[in-house]
From TrEMBL, chain A:
Catalytic function, reaction form: a quinol + 2 Fe(III)-[cytochrome c](out) = a quinone + 2 Fe(II)-[cytochrome c](out) + 2 H(+)(out)
Descriptive protein name: Cytochrome bc1 complex cytochrome b subunit
TM ranges: 45-73, 94-120, 132-152, 200-220
A Pfam entry, by short name: Cytochrome_B
The protein's required cofactors: heme
Entry's Gene Ontology BP terms: respiratory electron transport chain
Classification via InterPro entries: Cyt_b/b6_N (IPR005797), Cytb/b6-like_sf (IPR027387), Di-haem_cyt_TM (IPR016174)
Basic and acidic residues bias locations: 259-268
Automatic annotation (TrEMBL), chain B:
UniProt-recorded name of the protein: Cytochromesubunit B of the bc complex-like protein
One cellular component term from this protein's GO annotations in UniProt: membrane
Subcellular location: Membrane
Boundaries of every Cytochrome b/b6 C-terminal region profile domain copy: 22-160
Amino acid sequence: MGAISKARSQAADAGKFVADWLEHRAGIVTMMEHFLYEPVPKRGAWIYTLGSATLFLITLQFLTGILLLFYYVPSTDHAWNSIYYIMNEAYFGTLIRGIHYWSANFLLAVIGLHMAQVFFSGGYKAPRELNWVVGVVLLLLVVIIAFTGYALRWDQDGVWATVVGMKIGSYSPFVGAYTIQFLMGGDTIGPATVSRFFAIHVWLLPAALAPFIGIHLYLLRRHGVFGDEMEYRERLAKLQERQRLEEYEQYEDDGEPYVGRRDRADRD
Amino acid sequence: MYAPATGKQKPVEQEVITEENVFERPDETIAFFPKQVLYDLFVSTLLLLACCALSYVSPAPLTEPADTATVTYVPRPEWFFFFYEQMLMFFPGYALISFGAVVVPTVFVVLLFAVPWLDRGPRASSTRRPFATVIGVLVVVVVLLNMLMAVSRIINFPGQ
C-alpha cells in the first residue's frame, strides 16, 4: 500500500471514529440524516428558497449586530461618534455595518416575497394555518426591530424619523400616549430614548424573535414544505373522485337517479 | 376530540384523502439534500455577495449628528415605511389621522392573521380561487402604488 493510500485510509478511519463517537454521545449523525433527508416536494423550485433566504438574512442580522456591539455605545453623547468610528476607523467596520444595513433591507423585501409566494400558492391552507400566523408575528417583530434600529444611529434622519413614527403611534386610542412616553423615557426624545430603543432592538425583540423562528421551523418540519398545488395533483384527483362517489352513493340511498352537478343545476 | 392532523404515519395506499389532509404530503418527494440545499446555498451566497458589494458601493447612511433643537429638518423613513407614510396623506387632519395611522393598519394586520380562516376552500392554486387572488393582487398593487407615490412626492417636493 502506498503512502498516499495509507494516509487516505487512516483519514477515513479517523473520520468514522469521530462520527461514531459523536453519534454515540449526541446522536448527531441520526439528527443530520433526519434534517437533510426530510422529504420535500419533488418538483423543487427556486421560489421555494425564499424561506431559507429569510432565515439566512436574519442570521446575518444577528451576527453583524453582535459585531457592531463591540464598538457601538448606546448614549446620545457617543452613539453617533461610535458609528462614525465603525465606518471610518474600525477594521472592516464599513463592511460589517454595510452588511447589517443592506441585509435588513433585503430581509424586508424577501419577507414580502416569501409571504406573497405563500399567499398566492395557498401555502397557508390546512394543516399549515398556524405557520402562517407565526409568520405574520415574525413579520411584525422584524418591522418593529427595523424601526427601533433607526434611532440608534443618533443622526438627524434616524432621530427625526423616529420622532415622526412615535408621533404617529401616539394616536393609538387609550394606550398610545402612555406607550410612547414609556418608549421615549419622558416627553421628548433624549438619552433615555436611546437606552430603551437599544434594549428593545438588541435584547427584547431578538429574544422574542428567536423562539418564533423555532416554532416556524418546527411547524414547517411537522407538516412539510407546501410548495405548490401542482405537487398534489394525484391526491386532489383522488379526493375529487372519492367525493364524487360519495355524492353518487348518497343519491342512490335517497332513491333518486343520479345526475351530474351541471345537469342538477340546470334542472333546479 | 383531537385527531392528529398528520396522516404521514400511514402508508399512502391506506390513507383516506380528505379536504383536511389533501395537502399533507406531495405526490412525489425528494430528499431535502442535496438539490434544495444547493438551491438555498446559491441564493444565500448571492445575497451575501450583494450585501458585501453594496456595503462599499453604497455605504450604510450616517447623516450629521442629531440636533433635537431643530424644527425645520424633514426626515425620510426607510423605503419599507413609504407605504405607511403615504397612506397617512390620505387621512389628513387631527380627526382622520388616528384612523389612517392606527385603525386601517390594525384592520389590515387582523385580516392578515385571519387569512387561513377566511379562505378555507380545498383548492390552493391561485387560478382556482379567483376571489382571494384578486384581493391579494389588489393589496400588492395598492402597496406598490403608494410606495411610488411616496417616492414621487419625495423627489418633487423634498421639503414636504
